[in-house]
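Purpose: get a first structural picture of the assembly so the mutagenesis plan has something to point at.
Setup: two entries, given in the order below. No constraints added.
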Amino acid sequence: MRRIKLLFLGFLGSLVTVSAQSNLTYELHVGTTGENTVLANFPESYAGEKINIKVSVESVTFSELDFIFSNSQHPIANSPSFDSIYSYTDEIGTFWTVWRSNKEIKNRGQRVMVQNAYKTFEEYVRTHTAVAKRSTGWIWFVFAGLLLIAGIVYACVIIYQRRQEKLLTPVEQETLRRKRMGLRRHYGSQLYLWLLLLVLYAPIALIAVFSFTKSKILGNWTGFSFDLYVNLFTGKADAGLNSAIWYTVVIALIAAVVSTILGTLAAIGIYNMRARQRKMVSLLNSVPMINPDIITGISLFLLFVALGVSQGLATVCIAHVVFCTPYVVLSVLPRLSRMNPNTYEAALDLGATPAQALRMVMLPELWPGMLSGFILALTLSVDDFGVTFFTKGSGGLETLSTFIYSDARKGGLTPELRPLFTIILLVMLSVLIYINIRKSKQEEK
Amino acid sequence: MSKVVQIFSSRRTWAWPYIAFMAMFVVLPLVLVAVYALTDINGDFTLRNFAKFFTHSEAIQTFIYSLVIAVFNTAICLLIGYPAAYIMAQEDFKTPKVMAMLFILPMWINFLLRTVATVELFNMCGLPLGEGALLFGLCYDYLPFMIYPIYNTLQKMDNSLVEAAQDLGANRWTCFWKVIVPLSMPGVYSGIVMVFMPTVSTFAIAELLTHNNIKLFGSLIQDYITTTDLLNYGAVLSLVLLIIIAMTSFFGDHDDKEEGGLV
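Result (structure tokens, whole complex):
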């Protein structure tokens, strides 16, 4: 168990080392534009490296642009190629096309050119960044090395054990064999789980590790720094990110409060219904839970279009209440079935108004369910992308999810997102650890 | 006034605001999807949108491709997730709560951000983006949804049944296939539904993981629904997806009764 944990830590460590070594990033801007534009002349030391090139161009159809990899001796040595093309529309509504290429620099002094067959480049190119990234393909050697070392150590241990065993009696050998089988099964299953967790956490570790460097590109280490954290807290981050954070918080709070109130009242109502009515309402309640995001989003989008409502903060809040409330209902109902149904009526008989009875009799019994419903609603709302995407309208309202989406489609991430989510992860981790510790202490008592 | 008090003292009526809200924002919108699918841009009744779907080879191909991807992803999640859930539910496993916690924790990081980080990880390791990356990313995002329900049913399972099978001479393998697997089927069903439904309707992840080179049905719907002229055709595609979802949730209905649904 401890050994596997060490291995896990070792992996994280090697990740840091690898990234620390891969800081040879070239961000080259196109100097001249013309029919054949040279994007980058790579220094000699780059021979044998892989490069990652990205060119964004405003509204050009695909066939008009191409990468050409060549060197000074052979002007057009390699056939023109790019690995992927994608396009997106930015906030102003301009259509961009992005070419990406991942090629190996074969010769010394190789150049990368962008060729445009039809028109002069000047007309199109607005931003033109070529990012040459040092290859990190040798991360595999680190993996292989670790595996090899682990394998050798394991083999040595086994050989040593076998030798010792030969000195024992057959009966002792048999019991040892049994014990070893059990141990092997135990460690095997542990290893399986920790390997799964390793894969699950690798991208997150990447975010966390790279939140401590200034670089704009994820995966590019430019020295240790707290700058991103400072930017995040002093509001120096991208204005879009700041407003996205605020909108996310505001929408989540509104949606959670409204759905908790609506859901609690509904739960009390449903609990007091007759069986058939209850069945119908419970069916209705489960519809938003079964519906995938995209269907909920699209159907609400169509409703707002049909009603002619302009979409914005209000429509997003309504949409979030729609998919949060069923969960509140489901978390309040079990509390209701656990409480004595007569206490409320007793309060009424003793002269309390329904409002008083609700406040003084029902609420104290229900609040744990309401609280868990509230927290669930908060989480669902913060995490939602699909529904928000279709109901946010085009007024520039962005929550964190949609902000990340539009950011990622442009091929880059606002760097301050990295510290933000590192903090969220750490907060969630400490909350969960705290809850676990408290629970185990209660169990001890 | 006293009449109002009387109405609200019957607690049944407290659900009315919720029912009205749901009718307005859940039922009506779903009806509207069908209405939009059956009308043209001027609001006249037409079946042309449906006809277009059946002759639109791109839509049909994307649809089938998405189904295949979703089936593959569900199968992979099941293959990876079942052993994990099984190990965690073993009696001699000492820290199931911590392990379960570790498996859910990544879900608090925005899934789009995790996807972008996955893309960067693939770039770092020099792996190409494409179908493999897509399956990896989908599996990565939905694996906890598979592990959790299976773990729950396995944990609730009556262990004396397993012991009885062992006493009657079943070896580990027979015991696993004839006792444990059948008993864990409710969890497997709900795991399948919880992974299959979001995968078949996913629309943002695929774009990021393949640099827009592979289009899934969700992205296709998104393209059409956000184009004003083609909104009605987008509604048809949504309706098709809705039918698939309805069929899947019907398949997963088996275990709902055991869980009790409401109350």
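Strands of chain A lie at 26-29, 36-41, 50-58, 65-71, 84-89, 95-104, 110-116, 129-132.
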